[in-house]
Design goal:
Strand content: 25-35%
Number of helices: 9
Distance between the termini: 29 Å
Strand order of the largest sheet: 3-4-5-9-8-7-6
Shape: globular
Oligomer: single chain
Radius of gyration: 22 Å
Order of helices and strands: HEEEEEHEEEEHEHEEHHHHHEEEEE
Helix content: 25-40%
């Protein structure tokens, strides 16, 4: 079986059996341990027989995307830079492959999730002039193998496609241990600047924690980036899938920025639950979290056509006004850190969002399609307990689940 068949056979299995990955646009390679959560609608235009190279095109947006895996060792190439393992550096691998296309390029090098990576803006001429972005990195689970991504558009409209192409590259994950962290491109643009101390009042419980100084600014960049892609699908048949991807990628980025805060919150609430002799520790923590976000200052941002009205999780934690979707995602992030299944529910008809968590307690439930899970629904804007929702929002068919990674 070729690698192409193996990858798509695996995707078929995932599509049938895993409710958390019901999205054919997620490319997952089991052999090399990487994944890409690309924008909806891409189609395979060509591929190599060995399954190591794929060319994608989009029927609605004039963007091409090349994904290529190469094996490169400095011992087999003269005058090349190498790392301590004797393998080539990503910048050299990227440079050699762009040279094969006679591309004009300028390469930068940076560290991302403990891996050295290379990025380049480039231009080239194929059947016509094109321009775009490319990246290269060594795959942690397959030393000596490098993943090269190129995405490009006609040169005369490249600037208008930049956000779409950057979103594509930024969805890459090369190490599952760092899945819910900032993407490659945002990490390059917004490196950490050091921690600042903050104190939270979680429904009456004081929690001392910290967050990176750049977290709010970087998270807003990610949100606006993904919003620019999502709005392209407003009238597209895949609008629902695009909406789910929008929240999924925001979660991936924002979660990593607040993970230390969540750890401190859960440790403090867990200790409090034990002292209180709570019969169900998880339910105790869940209710404290729900009460906490219900007390947040309500605000829908005065967004522009290029800005989302979603308040980032770092900003929400630091006291910025926010709405139901930010609150619900924050609750989901905390409950998933606790080891419980949690799903973000969104509704176009209700213009609302809720959290749904796998807690054994009475109340209104949401049952994800093709699963036997019963998730307790949580209203984050009204002063109610878990399982209580408004009767005029009770139609389960009008809620769209976002399965968070």
């Amino acid at each position: 079986m070729t690698r192409l068949k193996k990858i798509f056979a695996l995707l078929s299995i995932i599509f049938v059996f895993s409710a958390a990955t019901l999205n054919a646009e997620i490319i997952s390679d089991p052999d090399f341990g990487f994944s890409l959560d690309i924008p909806e609608g891409f189609e395979i235009e060509d591929y190599s027989e060995d399954g190591m190279s794929y060319l994608f095109s989009h029927p609605n947006i004039p963007v091409h995307f090349l994904m290529k895996i190469v094996q490169a060792n400095a011992n087999t190439s003269a005058n090349t830079a190498e790392n301590t393992d004797g393998n080539m550096l990503p910048a050299e691998v990227l440079s050699q492959n762009l040279d094969k296309l006679n591309a004009q390029k300028e390469i930068a090098v940076f560290n991302w999730n403990e891996s050295e990576c290379a990025i380049s803006e480039f231009s080239m001429t194929l059947d016509a002039p094109y321009a775009g972005w490319s990246t290269a990195c060594e795959l942690p689970s397959a030393k000596g193998f490098y993943l090269i991504l190129l995405t490009y558009a006609p040169e005369n409209i490249k600037d208008g496609c930049n956000q779409f192409m950057i979103s594509l590259l930024n969805s890459l994950c090369i190490d599952q241990n760092f899945y819910n962290t900032s993407g490659m491109i945002v990490s390059y643009a917004y490196p950490d600047e050091g921690k600042k101390k903050i104190q939270l009042n979680v429904a009456g419980t004081k929690v001392n924690t910290s967050i990176d100084k750049i977290a709010e600014e970087a998270a807003k960049f990610e949100i606006d980036l993904e919003f620019s892609v999502f709005k392209l699908y407003a009238t597209h048949k895949l609008w629902k899938e695009a909406w789910q991807r929008y929240y999924r990628l925001i979660y991936r980025d924002n979660y990593g920025r607040i993970e230390p805060c969540i750890a401190d919150i859960l440790e403090r609430l867990g200790t409090e639950a034990e002292k209180a002799g709570a019969a169900d520790k998880n339910l105790y923590i869940a209710q404290k979290l729900l009460s906490w976000v219900q007390d947040f200052d309500y605000s829908r941002k005065n967004s522009t056509p290029d800005e989302a009205d979603f308040t980032s999780l770092p900003a929400a934690i630091c006291g910025a006004g926010n709405d139901c979707d930010s609150r619900s995602m924050l609750v989901c992030a905390c409950m998933r850190s606790l080891g419980l299944e949690a799903v973000l529910l969104i509704s176009r008809e209700y213009s609302h969002a809720m959290a749904a968590v796998q807690i054994d307690a009475p109340g209104q439930k949401y049952i994800p399609e093709n699963t036997d899970m019963e998730l307790l629904m949580g209203e984050t804007t009204a002063k109610v307990t878990w399982g209580m929702i408004a009767q005029d929002m009770a139609d389960r068919e009008k809620w769209i689940p976002v399965y968070l990674p």
